[in-house]
Amino acid sequence: MTDTLPRSVVATVDAAPSPSSRVDLGDIPVVRTKHWFRWTIAAIVVFVVAQFAWSLVTNENYEWDYFAHYFLSEPVLQGLWLTLVYTVVSATIGFLLGTVLALARLAKSPLLNGAAWSFIWFFRSVPLVVQLVVWYNLGYLYPTLGLGTPFTTDFWLVEFPTVQLISAFAAGVLGLSLHQAAYSAEIIRGGLLSVDQGQLEAAAALGIPPRRRLSRIILPQAMRSIVPNATNEVIGLVKGTSVLFVIAIPELFYAVQVIYNRNSRVIPLLLVAVVWYTIITTILSIAQYYIERHYARGTVRVLPPTPLQRARHWASVQWARLGDGDSGPTPLAAADAPEVARVTFRGSSNDTTHSGGASA
Amino acid sequence: MSTITIPATDAGPARPQGLVEIHNVHKSYGGVEVLKGIDLTVHPGEVVAILGASGSGKSTLLRTINHLETVDRGSVTVDGELIGYEQRGGKLYELREKQVLERRTQIGIVFQNFNLFPHLTALENVTEAPLALGRLTKDDARELALGLLDRVGLGDKADHYPRQLSGGQQQRVAIARALALKPKVILFDEPTSALDPELVGEVLDVIRDLAQLGTTLIIVTHEVGFAREVADRVVFVEAGRIIEQGPPSDVLVRPKHPRVQEFLAKVLA
Predict the structure, then answer these.
(1) Neighbouring C-beta atoms of residue A115, cutoff 10 Å
(2) Interchain CB contact of B115 with A (< 8 Å)
(3) What is the pLDDT, as a whole number, of residue A276?
(4) Where are the domains of chain A?
(5) Is the model more confident about A188 or about A153?
(6) What are phi and psi of A176, to 5 degrees?
(7) pLDDT at position B100, please?
(8) What homologous superfamily does CATH list for A63-295?
């Protein structure tokens, strides 16, 4: 560094001895490079999007009046509610069980290890639809379930007919949860493995008990890589619930099917489902953004402003312009005063080192 | 070793403690013997520098002291206590993790690459262990941590995350973190090796201060000049054995063993 700096200065002086060539970017107008290719592609994209938007409006086969009529109708909203219930319940059970499986996979006991591995292996092998149907029909395999003497069918404590115990709801939750557990176990295990071994060592050396080591030191760091994959899984699960129609659970997809089988308006009703699924995914994606941001603390020196903060800053700049024609926009960084203070601090300490080096 | 009157600071132990006895320690990794029978006694309040070429086993030796590495033969005790085991009758009983952790808190360690918790602020890094062990209330832990950060010259950086600090500052936070449990012994595993040369001094200054306070310090280092200045005793490790030891004024000035002469010639060149 200290070598190259003076040399480059010398080079500039040699190449252009006249002082007029020392430009200041703030004083001279800058002509931007023209990106013709980029503009052409952008124009094509705009055209395709516009064409599609036009067809949405003009193509009568979309039957938007039917869409509007059914979008907030009773059976659709009930289906939506069931979809959400199955997602929340199965995601919760799935991730809890997944965490247990991930820890078992990482445990030192070969038995726990093997058991967790086998569980994951089996439930990743069996298609979700098949699993759901098997759970739903479990009564053929085990007519009664209960508690009693081990290794016998003498259920003297409690006994239930399987069909009664495993309702369609239970079969649905079981299928989705176990399927989800197998996948989330691997995501969580991957996240735990991604944390530097030195962190575990430092925590152990400080005498921090194992449970807290996991919850306070390792998991928060693992979350950085767990959250994006986990959100993927939850979004997958939202749509996975549409498979529940095979065991006649009236979730969103089943609900619209029932309606279009009656009135044959297939497209507008499928669109109802599509738009609802899109809305759920949008909300989850926004949640993902903020959760990721939460776990990013400490990983970058300064977190970038959120879209909301950016929008607010933009609005305030426009407002300032309206109020006072002369004042230019304030720099964007002003939106986050405390964080900026931190950078400035950090920057200034750097500056001292650099100026010290330069003067030497 | 000089007897030092211990000022009543937060980190200093109440009376001279921290006797480390390493007896005939052997350790192998997959057939390769890294430690080949090490005997070393470090007295309470003594500052010992361990020198040696890379791969000589000096870091492994250090890590056996707080049971981050187990030993194959021999024993390591701190104030007469085995860290990982308990002797009853003719048998050694492996301690439960909780007891190991409890005993380990008597020994602080500072790592080569700091190993600060990146998602916690400097302050939280220091308060974490006392809070996790339920030794202090939140307010007390905070007060202790601010005091310790002040002592390492980082009182104004308490709310910074490690990544917002320079390497030297991070290592000083790591030292404050190790001090938070008031250990009787502090181990330093090449504390300045990952630092830019101009940042080494600030970390050595902090260690020099600690050396005055009567805590037992065992320092694996490459800084021969620092070892000469601070250590009461220098220990040379070569191929898993201690080949020479003594006061720095002897060992570093008139080394007897040819390997030590060679090493010093290279390092001081």
Answers:
(1) 14
(2) yes
(3) 96
(4) 63-295, 331-360
(5) A188
(6) -65, -45
(7) 84
(8) MetI-like (1.10.3720.10)
* CA distances from residue B117 to A297, A302, B92, B160 in whole angstroms, order as listed: 11, 17, 34, 12
Axis crossing angle, helix A219-240 with helix A74-106, rounded to the nearest 10: 140
Contact residues on chain B for A301, CB-CB shorter than 8 A: 161, 163-164
| Residues in chain B with pLDDT values less than 70 | 1-16
Q: Is the confidence at residue A250, as pLDDT, over 70?
A: yes
Q: How many helices (H) and strands (E) does chain A have?
A: 16, 2
Structure confidence by residue, pLDDT tens digits, A88-147: 999 999 999 999 999 999 998 999 999 999 999 999 999 999 999 999 988 888 888 878
Structure tokens at B249: 């004024």
**B38: nearest Cα among B49, B25, B20, B57:** B25
Residues contacting residue A110 through CB under 8 Å, at least 6 positions apart: none
The amino acid sitting at B170 is Q
Over the Cα atoms of chain B, what is R_g?
Answer: 18
- Report the C-alpha gap between B104 and B260 in whole angstroms: 33
Predicted TM-score (pTM) above 0.90? no
Residue A208 tokens read as 């921090």
| pLDDT at A308 exceeding the cut of 50 | yes
For A35-80, what is each residue's pLDDT tens digit?
Answer: 999 999 999 999 999 999 999 999 998 999 999 999 999 999 999 9
Pick from B97, B118, B181: CB nearest A206? B181
- Which residue is associated with the tokens 């040699």? A14
Tokens encoding B53: 């070429």
Q: Residue A340: what pLDDT?
A: 37
Do the chains contact at A298 and B116, CB–CB below 8 Å?
Answer: no
- Give how far Cα A42 sits from Cα of A37, A45, A46, A55, A105, Å: 9, 5, 6, 20, 49
Burial of B162 (0-12, 13-18, 19+ CB in 10 A): buried
| Chain A contacts to B (CB-CB under 8 A) | 196, 198-199, 201-210, 212, 216-217, 220-221, 295, 297-301, 342, 346, 349, 353
Q: What is the pLDDT of residue A334?
A: 41
Question: Residue holding tokens 């919850």?
Answer: A215
CA dist A33 and A24 (Å) reads 19
C-alpha B10/C-alpha B146 separation (Å) is 11
- Domain parsing of chain B, residue ranges: 122-182
Question: What pLDDT does residue B103 have?
Answer: 85
